[in-house]
Amino acid sequence: MKKPTGRRSALAALAAMAALVLTVTPASAVPSTVWTVTPSPALVTGTNSANATVNVNGDVLNCAKSGFTAALHSATGNPAQVGTFGSFTFGTASTPCTGVLGPVSVTATTPWTFTAQDHTAATGVTKGYVDAMDLTVSGGSLSIRARGKAPASYTNATGRLVIDGTAGQLLITQTSDGTVFPIGTSVIVKAAYQLKLVGGGGIATIVGTAP
What is the pTM assigned to this prediction? Predict the structure, then answer.
C-alpha cells in the first residue's frame, strides 16, 4: 500500500484541527463583537518574513527560520478566539536558532491560540494576542520552559501576523539555572509571519464588527 505523503498528512491534520476549533464555544462578553474570517475555516501556513527573536533575560536568540500551521475561524465575543496554531517552529535542524553561546533549541508545545480584541476597519488591522504559548529553550546544560502570551496583530491587506512580545506576559515556569534565569523571568518573542491559505496561496481576512 502506498504511504501518504507528508503534505497530505499535514493537510489532514490541519483539517482535523479546523473541525475541532469550530466546536469551541465563543467567548462571551459585553459588548459583543462578531468576528468574520473569510474563508472560514481558513487553513493557513505562516513563514517568518523577518528574523524571529526570543529574548531570554537579555540573551537574544535569533531564529532565521520560523513558521507555523494554523486554522482561523469566525467567532463571536470580545475577546474571542479566532485561530488555533497546530504547530509552531523556531529554527530547523539545518538552521537552528543561535545565541551568544552558539546553536540553541527552541521548541513550541502547541496548540497555541490567536485571540482578537480590536479591529480597525480603516486599516484592516486586528489586534489581540497569541495565547497558551509554551516554549522550551535548551542549549548545553541550560533548559528553561516559559508559558504565557504575547501581543499580536494581523493585517488583512498583507496577510501579515506580527507577534510583538512585551515583558511580564510570557514567563519562565521551569529552569535548570535559577540564578541566571529565575522562575518568573520574562521571555520576549518578536516575529513577523506571512500567512497563506493552504492549497490556494491566497490571503485570509479577519473583520470585527459590533452588533
Answer: 0.85
125 C-beta neighbours (distance < 10 Å), count = 18
Q: Is residue 1 part of a domain?
A: no
Query: How many Å apart are CA 51 and CA 46, to the nearest integer?
Result: 13
Domain count within the chain: 1
Measured CA to CA, the distance from residue 207 to residue 24 in angstroms comes to 19
Which pLDDT tens digit goes with each residue over 118-172? 999 999 999 999 999 999 999 988 899 999 999 999 999 999 999 999 999 999 9
162 inside domain? yes
**Domain that includes residue 196, residue range:** 6-209
Q: Phi then psi for 72, rounded to 5 degrees?
A: -100, 150
The whole-angstrom separation of Cα 137 and Cα 180 is 14
Report how far apart, in Å, the C-alpha atoms of 37 and of each of 72, 73, 207 are: 7, 6, 7
